[in-house]
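Problem: given the chain below (141 residues), write out its structure.
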Amino acid sequence: MRLIAFILCVLAGACVDTDRSFPPDVDYSEGPVVTMASTTHLAIINESLADGLSVEKAHAVRSESHEFAHYIAARIVGLEDNQSIGLWFMYDGMDVPGDAFSVNGSAREYSRFPAMDDDAIAGNEFPHEVEVLFDLVNRLP
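Solution.
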């Protein structure tokens, strides 16, 4: 399903190939289903951002290594370049998220959530589902 959505996006010319952190060779043949982030995710992230900032084009993917948890990636709007993508991690469900954490540098810099304490992520070794999620948000115009 995700592959079909990506192919439709490419055919419609809506995907832009720009590199902002991940290589363009992300494998879409297997893996997670990326969905639109819930309005609850958006509200929680927007409340955590510095004044004048908000998120758009937010998508989510279920964590493959943590039960009942999601990663959320979104473009941070209100910055000079409007190209920064924040990555957050939230426990529990899509509509009733629990604890939230900042995962990448942009999320850590602009939101009030604590940094996710994960050695692999601190070393930029993102799980496959995060690579797919980040790549999708990165390609959105």
